[in-house]
Amino acid sequence: MNKKIYPYITGTGSFTPPKILTNFDLEKIVETSNEWIISRSGIKERRIVEDGTVSSDMAFEASKIALKEAGLEPGQIDLIVVGTVTPDYLLPSTACILQDKLKIKNTAVMDVVAACSGFIYGLSVASAFIISGQFKSVLVIGVETLSKITNWSDRNTCVLFGDGAGAAVVQATTEEKGILGTFLSGDGSLANLLHIPVGGTKVPLTKENVDLKQQYIQMAGSEVFKSAVRAMEDAAIHVIQKAGLSPEEIDLVVPHQANIRIIEALAKRLKLPMEKVYVNIDRFGNTSSASVPIALDEARKKGLIQEGSRTVLVAFGGGFTWGSALIKW
Ligand code: ACO
Predict the structure, then answer these.
(1) How many Å lie between the centroid of ligand 1 and the Cα of residue 223?
(2) Which residue among 30, 109, 124, 202 has the highest number of C-beta atoms inside a 10 angstrom radius?
(3) Is the pLDDT of residue 3 over 90?
(4) Does the annotation mark 286 as catalytic?
């Protein structure tokens, strides 16, 4: 009888641009204050790309680290999945550009558009292909150059976002460990609460709508906030219960870093102390699909994830989309 196959993360990597934009820098751009930003979001600073750096560049840097840690050559990857809402181009996918930067051919390549849940959606795609036996090694990336779709005169949004990339190599194993379960969901009826109104085929870019800065992210912050807390709790509970576990049996939760108050509310609802919840929003802000893999990579490299321990990844984003993954290391 064939042995059951499990998808296991064998390497992670992350990259954030060196340029730091502090809250004090933002005080000079819009009417805001360091105190307001910290108290309402927990963010102290974020990383911003220099002109000329694009999503595929950051994805490439994060991927190289993850591949090296996994001990794989790029050519051993069967599928590249890139979660992003800030692709280099509308066509082709950023996964294709990354494939070329990795100097490989004959690999399956795709982008996943699920905003802040993009990495978890990508991880779920990787898991499903590995469990099905179609692929053995998948490279999953979450990458965003949000600074390019941010309206730097809108204080409601520009204080929140940052740029960066995180990557994970997922490989097939017959040992009972790895990504034990994933949960994905969405609600397109709430799309208008967090969106970019123009620039697609419905409302193409015009001089008029660009003058009105409608090509940038618009967000109804407090409505998104409430949905995010509820959906992230549901997603985390779903994947934990499906594995026959309870929240206190989870060693570390790595949540999407959108707002420290959302993260604290999630911890409270799961009845978990904040020591079991990884936080780096103070240094990077909200990097959308990159936030979970950057946080995961940091947590691993700080030694917060031991062999045999259990981690839950959970995210919520524009769409709305949300999802979770339970990993046994
Ligand atoms: N500086 C100072 N004042 C500000 C700023 C700012 N940067 N931004 C807004 N304000 C003001 C508002 O104008 C408002 O003033 P008013 O009462 O006079 O109208 C007041 O502060 C309060 O605004 P709220 O929006 O009610 O503030 P809130 O406590 O909700 O915090 C925030 C705003 C930080 C945006 C929060 O709602 C949030 O984090 N929302 C969720 C974001 C999220 O999870 N996004 C999901 C993923 S993002 C993605 O998918 C790309």
Answers:
(1) 10
(2) 124
(3) no
(4) yes
